[in-house]
TrEMBL record:
Protein name: Guanine deaminase
NCBIfam families noted in UniProt: guan_deamin
The protein's annotated pathway: Purine metabolism; guanine degradation; xanthine from guanine: step 1/1
Pfam families on file: Amidohydro_1 (PF01979)
Length: 462
């Protein structure tokens, strides 16, 4: 049992952050939060019965506990291409940068290198839950799932399906049967990592059915993946309405469908367990359909700007009652950090506000909600993660502010540390605000999933 003491911050609702300057959170052996004390309630003598011998983990110096981030959309195999996109847009970016790289993961040892680096990286940025696209390769995808299981990161891992001739011959499913058989094989493998947990819906790592996007798949393939979802109950992830050229292509390829969203709906892929990335240019009818089906949206602002896809209308999506989370979308996006994605979401909303008016602006509170509770709801875990409540899992990060990183120049024997008293005068709310705009992974000094320490930096102890 562990008691986490010190300030903590989490979202109460889309508009409201709770900032507790003096807190204590008791987490049991199973990683579940059993009590939360605030302010005057905090004290050794009031510790509940049975917690006398619990270990204490305190925030040292300035800082606070914050829920772990949920990345609702990213591509692990694209990690080596981070920052490379030139002036391409989606369709030529896929052919120029993405397919050649992804196809190279036919080499399992190459996949192991790339995936190990990426999972450690996302953890170091405080991502406790991550929705990963793999590639079409089953051994590589299964390795990714095993890695998340071993490192203790909550994850949804998908073997990518792409059987249409949009894909180059060197990187394409051999046919529908192959796509479905390989998907099934990967689902079974991932569930075998924790058979009991999978049965109860409590596994840390879960499979996710992954038709890349409509132009990559034939109708038959998507319909069979819809059937695979009904058979296995696995989640589904895909892309929707990211780029105007892509939307035109979908119209040409699927003339019998009334819209992009309708293509997925006809295949049985629009479900409560479906995560749709981007959703930049949805029509009113599509939004209504997605809302009715209960499908979720992953907002990927960095990627949408990098590939000049557009500024997704997040305020409108939220107002239509659709559940929204954030996605880094490596390597359309250039950062594996959800904190960076929070800033990008704020920025993009401000570009929308320049045309649509101030209501389009997202606040710091709102993006932090999307990064935690919103993402949790996207994967259906809103009762388990995303906030600090009794009965929820301890998926959390310790944020430290003003950790001074020394510098050293030639001839100096040790690190020279700067003066430390420049910061620390801010109100608690200002500290959070400054973390969102100027923080990075160095501020995330420790990360837990279900009570298990899954990442720490030297500065955690210092
Ligand atoms: N649409 C289809 N594949 C991809 C991908 O890998 N990244 C992004 N951003 N969009 C896609
Ligand atoms: Fe993507």
């Amino acid at each position: 049992k562990t008691i986490y003491t010190g300030p903590f911050v989490h979202s109460r609702s889309l508009k409201e952050l709770e900032i507790v300057e003096k807190g204590a959170i008791g987490v049991d052996e199973a990683g579940v939060i059993r009590f939360i004390e605030r302010g005057d309630e905090v004290g050794e003598e009031k510790r509940p019965e049975g917690w006398e011998d619990a270990e204490t983990v305190a925030v040292k110096g300035e800082g606070f506990f914050f829920p772990g981030f949920v990345d609702t959309h990213t591509h692990a195999p694209q990690h080596p291409n981070t920052g490379l996109f030139g002036k391409t847009t989606l369709l030529d970016w896929l052919q120029t940068y993405t397919f050649p790289l992804e196809s190279s993961l036919s080499s399992l040892s190459r996949a192991q290198h790339i995936y190990t680096n990426f999972v450690l990286r996302t953890l170091s940025h405080g991502t406790t839950t991550c929705c990963y696209y793999g590639t079409i390769h089953v051994p590589a995808t299964n390795f990714l799932a095993k890695l998340c299981h071993e490192r203790g990161q909550r994850a949804y891992v998908g073997r990518v399906c792409m059987n249409s001739d949009l894909s180059p011959e060197y990187y394409r499913d051999a046919g529908v049967d192959q796509a479905v058989k390989d998907s099934r094989e990967s689902i079974e493998y991932i569930r075998s990592l924790d058979p009991e947990g999978s049965k109860k819906g409590e596994a840390i790592v879960n499979p996710i059915i992954t038709p890349r996007f409509a132009p990559s798949c034939t109708s038959d393939c998507m319909a069979q993946l819809g059937a695979l979802h009904r058979e296995t109950g696995a989640h589904i992830q895909t892309h929707i309405s990211e780029n105007k050229g892509e939307i035109e292509l979908v119209k040409e390829l699927f003339p019998d469908s009334t819209s992009y969203a309708n293509v997925y709906d006809q295949a049985g892929l629009l479900t409560e367990k479906t995560i749709l990335a981007h959703a930049v240019h949805l029509t009113e009818e599509e939004k209504a359909l997605i809302k009715e089906r209960g499908s979720k949206i992953s907002h990927c602002p960095a990627s949408n700007t990098a590939l000049t896809s557009g500024c997704a209308p997040v305020r409108e999506l939220l107002e239509s009652g659709i559940i929204v989370g954030l996605g880094t979308d490596i390597s359309g996006g250039f950062s594996p950090s959800i904190l960076e994605e929070c800033r990008q979401a704020i920025w993009v909303s401000r570009f929308r506000a320049m045309n649509d008016g101030d209501d389009a602006k997202l606040s710091t509170e709102e993006v932090l909600y999307l990064a935690t509770r919103g993402g949790a709801a996207v994967v259906g875990l809103e009762d388990h993660i995303g906030g600090f409540e009794v009965g929820m899992d301890w998926d959390a990060q310790m944020v430290r502010l003003g950790v001074v990183h020394g510098g050293q120049k030639e001839g100096e024997e040790k690190l020279v540390e700067g003066p430390v008293d420049v910061f620390g005068w801010e109100s608690a709310a200002e500290k959070v605000e400054k973390w969102v705009y100027s923080g990075d992974d160095r501020n995330t000094v420790a990360v837990w999933v279900k009570g298990r320490l899954v990442h720490r930096k030297d500065s955690y102890e210092a």
